[in-house]
């Protein structure tokens, strides 16, 4: 039995029950694929269900306020995915009358849809024989064929894509693509794969040569950058605080946060003497205390944020910038914020 048929046979016997596997609705498949980018299934499933419940159709998502979309996305990270999701929903609803493109090439033109996502939607919804290549697929193919080309290089991407095209099952493209991804997630796992009971173990080069633990090869990432965030959590008469919307093109664009001082000096005296803080206080009396002695370290893929929260008690309104707004304590729970701040809000602003 050839490679693809063995995988499909394994899949039909071992696949997990998932709501997006019960449909070929391109809206549902697209939504699941965007959510599951860089997200484990166990984490992504509740978000998928919430999105389908809140926005049953692409028109509902298109008509939503961006803040509501970001709030529902809160905790998944990589917020550009949510913004692109909203942009594409508007395009499909308004320009395509709610009908998703029905082929790989046109799907690829949608904002936020790359090669993998376009292949998944095209094969699952329209039975187009285009292969998916994600982390699971890289792992399965590199181990089975003994490929040592780094997967995060141009040569590696090209080599694995060409191999994936060659192996594509043209009779059952939807089942094959889902099979190889599921196989990598459940059977050919990153650590401690089930090689003894693997249906491919008689022909696996990685197993035969003892390379399982070293494949796939991936070049080391760039050095992690350290940043030092100091948030000013104002308590105005013990009832209100200040939030501001983050601008620019960073990963948290459009999300809300407390007034921020980004400097390496993580101590109360340096914060009190900071020009931004002094301008906001505007000469009024205040009392500032540090929330927790040690910084909270929030780890992102390319940077680590060393974060402190300073509670600033005041009786008179601080001077605000145009991006800042005063809100009641209870309202802090309704704004879309990074999970780092969401955890703090849940802990500090108990309602």
From TrEMBL:
Catalytic activity: Hydrolyzes free adenine bases from 7,8-dihydro-8-oxoguanine:adenine mismatched double-stranded DNA, leaving an apurinic site
Task of the protein: Adenine glycosylase active on G-A mispairs. MutY also corrects error-prone DNA synthesis past GO lesions which are due to the oxidatively damaged form of guanine: 7,8-dihydro-8-oxoguanine (8-oxo-dGTP).
Residue stretches making up the HhH-GPD domain: 35-186
Cofactor dependence: [4Fe-4S] cluster
Broad enzyme group: hydrolase
Matches recorded under InterPro entries: A/G_AdeGlyc_MutY, DNA_glycosylase, HhH-GPD_domain, HhH_base_excis_C, HhH_motif, MIG/MutY, MutY_C, NUDIX_hydrolase-like_dom_sf
The UniProt record lists the keyword Metal-binding: yes
SMART domains the UniProt entry points to: ENDO3c
GO molecular function: 4 iron, 4 sulfur cluster binding; 8-oxo-7,8-dihydroguanine DNA N-glycosylase activity; adenine/guanine mispair binding; metal ion binding; oxidized purine DNA binding; purine-specific mismatch base pair DNA N-glycosylase activity
The protein's name in its UniProt record: Adenine DNA glycosylase
UniProt-listed Enzyme Commission number(s): 3.2.2.31
Domain of life: Bacteria
Family: Belongs to the Nth/MutY family.
Sorted UniProt keywords: 4Fe-4S, DNA damage, DNA repair, Glycosidase, Hydrolase, Iron, Iron-sulfur, Metal-binding
GO BP, sorted A to Z: base-excision repair; mismatch repair
Cofactor binding: number and manner: Binds 1 [4Fe-4S] cluster.
Family matches, as Pfam families: HHH, HhH-GPD, NUDIX_4
Protein encoded by which gene: mutY
